[in-house]
Amino acid sequence: ANGLMAGKRGLILGVANNRSIAYGIARALAEQGAEIALTWQGDALKKRVEPLASELGAVLAGHCDVSDASTIDAVFETLEKQWDSLDFVVHAIGFSDKDELTGRYVDTSEGNFTKTMLISVYSLTAIAQRAEKMMVNGGSILTLTYYGAEKVMPHYNVMGVAKAALEASVRYLAVDLGSKAIRVNAISAGPIKTLAASGIGDFRYILKWNEYNSPLKRTVTIDEVGQSALYLLSDMSTAVTGEVHHVDSGYHTVGMKAVDAPDI
Ligand code: NAD
After folding, report:
1. Ligand 1 mean position, distance from CA 22 (Å)
2. Quick one: residue 14, left, alpha or beta (phi over 0 = left, psi -120 to 50 = alpha)?
3. Whole-angstrom distance, CA of residue 92 vs CA of residue 6
4. How far does residue 121's CA lie from ligand 1's centre (Å)?
5. Residue 95 lies inside a defined structural domain of this protein
6. What residues of the chain score a pLDDT lower than 70?
7. In this predicted structure, what is the pLDDT of residue 1?
8. Catalytic residue from among 122, 147, 156, 251
9. Whose CA is closest to 162, among 99, 105, 88?
């Protein structure tokens, strides 16, 4: 294949359907010649992921529930049988109980706090541990975060705390893996209507707020996140690591509501 990703092989975790950010990234990478492996979480999503994998010519790497480490091991065993090395990983996974993505952060339960951190934060490190062994020629690891890590967003609650820890993990992993030429970065995406986002209270309001108040006066698409991911996962960014790159129509630069923004 030709393209920026020709000869590169990578694992993408987090495709649920054709609206997933992970799917936008997978498509951008496949167009540039990458060889991709996809996982799914449970049988219900398997039915959705399989046709997308065949469309992209992707390897089926199996069921992966990151809260069960044996399923992560199984994915890497499958990869090791097919590929002798790995060049990139996309981690596009997040979870929190919907009942706590509304109301007040202060009411977060211990159980959901722990589960949110395990699935949304620790999983990046668990995957990096296994990927390190296969990234014999160096590599690039990418995760997805949100501005709610930096500033308080309505209803984002425990997920904001988790994303802050995820962004710190990116920096610690970047240092630990840098000597092996393995880079670790995050894309901080603006709000996009996906399955995961539908669990967040008043999400439509948040989308409109970003549209009216971002410098570009619009929201972002999964294809645009995909194009930025292409930069971070390809040799276009060989000197970039530990970075949180905002793909949010510039929203994070703004300090105040636009004076001409309509009421929502
Ligand atoms: P999505 O629902 O399409 O993807 C979320 C994925 O997480 C799904 O594929 C789901 O199967 C997976 N997942 C959840 N729990 C898991 C577990 N225990 N084991 C394995 N996989 C699990 O939604 P999305 O918006 O594309 O989310 C992808 C990432 O992007 C998430 O980290 C999310 O926080 C982040 N993000 C989303 C937005 C947005 O507005 N949609 C903005 C910024 C960042």
Report:
1. 8
2. left
3. 22
4. 12
5. yes
6. 1
7. 65
8. 156
9. 105
Quick check: is 259 in a domain? no
Atom of ligand 1 nearest to the CA of 40: 11
pLDDT of residue 201: 84
The one-letter amino acid code at 169 reads S
**Domains of the chain: total:** 1
What is the dihedral angle through the alpha carbons of 253, 258, 263, 264, rounded to the nearest 10 degrees? -10
Q: Report whether residue 92 contacts ligand 1, using a CB cutoff of 6 Å.
A: yes
Domain span at residue 248 reads: 9-253
Of the candidates 182, 209, 204, the one whose C-alpha atom is nearest the C-alpha of residue 193 is: 204
User: What CATH number is given to the structural domain containing 227?
Assistant: 3.40.50.720
> Within the chain, how many helices (H) and strands (E) appear?
8, 7
101 Cβ closer than 6 Å to some ligand 1 atom: no
141 inside domain: yes
Answer yes or no: is the ipTM higher than 0.85: yes
Residue 215: per-residue pLDDT: 97
Is the C-beta atom of 194 inside 6 A of ligand 1? yes
147 is catalytic: no
Query: Is 223 a member of any domain?
Result: yes
Would you call 156 a catalytic residue per the annotation?
A: yes
Give the span between the Cα atoms of 89 and 97, in whole angstroms.
Answer: 26
At 148 the pLDDT is 97
Residue to probe by mutation, ligand 1, list 19, 41, 209, 248, most atoms within 8 Å of CB: 41
